[in-house]
Design a protein that fits this description.
The complex is a heterodimer. In chain A, α1 packs across α5, α2 (about 25-30) packs across α4 and α5 (about 100-110) runs antiparallel to α6 (about 115-150). Helix content of chain A is about 70%, strand content about 0%. The radius of gyration of chain A is 20 Å and the shape is globular. Chain A is mainly alpha-helical. Chain A has one domain (about 1-150). The termini of chain A are far apart. Chain A has 6 helices and no strands. Chain A has helices at about 1-20, 25-30, 40-60, 80-100, 100-110, 115-150. Chain B is mainly alpha-helical. Chain B has one domain. Chain B has 6 helices and no strands. In chain B, α2 (about 35-40) packs across α3 (about 50-70) and α5 (about 105-115) packs across α6 (about 120-140). The radius of gyration of chain B is 17 Å and the shape is globular. Classes of the chains: A mainly alpha, B mainly alpha. Chains A and B meet through α1, α2, α3, α4 and α5 of A and α1, α2, α3, α4 and α5 of B.
Chain lengths: ~150, ~140
Amino acid sequence: MKNLVTLIAGLMFGTGLILSGMANPAKVQNFLDLFGTWDPSLAFVMGGAIAVTMPGFWLVTRRAKPFFNDMFHLPTRTDFDKRLVSGAAIFGLGWGLGGFCPGPAVTAVPLAAQGTIVFVVTMLIGMVAAKYFVLWRDRRAWDLAGKTSKL
Amino acid sequence: METEFTPILSLLGGGLIGASAVLLMATHGRIAGISGIISRILPPRSAGQSLSQGLVFVIGLLLSAPIWVLVYGQSPVQTVSDNLPLLGAAGILVGFGSVLGNGCTSGHGVCGISRLSGRSIVATVTFMSSAFIAVLLLRHVIGA
C-alpha cells in the first residue's frame, strides 16, 4: 500500500512535469530569457503547484500525524547561511545553462536524448561530490570547535 | 528557439505536481523535494536511512514518460541541446548546488514557498536570479 501510494505520487509528479512543459529544457530556458524568446508558461506551473500545495499542506498537517509515519518531517531551520545561498546560486547557474533541474531531467531519461543522459550522469556525480564536501566541511568545523574548547 | 505559450496545460501540470506533493505530505509526512529524494539514494549514506520509498518515487518518475507515450501515442515535445560539454557542466552545477543549498525547484520553489519558509524564499529568489543571468550570458553575450 505504502509503495503503491509512493509510486502514484512519482507518476503524478512526472506526468505533471511533462504536461506543464517543464520536461522540455527549451521551454524552461525561454522562461528565463526575458530579452529573447520569452515564454511565461513556467510561472503558471509554479502558480498551479503552489495553489494546490499551500492549502493542501495546511489541511493535511492539521492531522496529528501522516498516514504511514509517526510524525511530519518538516524543515525547522530559519537561519540564512552561506551554504544555502551559494548552493542556490550554483544550482541556478546550472539550471539556466542546461534548462534542466533534477525532477524533469530524471523524468526525461526514458526519452533518451543524449544531452539528457549526460546531464543526469553528471548531476549524480555533482550530488555525490557535494555530499562528501558537506561531510568534510562539517567534520572540519567539528575538529576546529573541539580544539578551541580545549584551550 | 521559440516555444508555444501554454498557460492552461502548465497550470494543470503544476496542479498535478502540487497534488503529488500534498499526497506525499499526507501519507509520509515528507517534503516532495526531488534533489533530496535522489541524493539520499546516493552515497555517502548515514546508517539506518531507508532507501525504498525514494527509489519507488524515482521509479514513478521514470515510468511517467513511457506511460505518456503509451496513452498519447507520441513522445512529449522536447528540445534538448546537443552541446554535450555544456550539459555536462550544467549537470555538475545542478547536482552540487542542489545538495549544498538543500533543495531545488520542487523542494524550495514549490514546497518551501507553500510553507512560507524564509529559507526557501531566499533560495528561490537566488536560483531564479542566477538562472536568469546564466541564460542572459549564454544566449545574449556568448550567443550559444
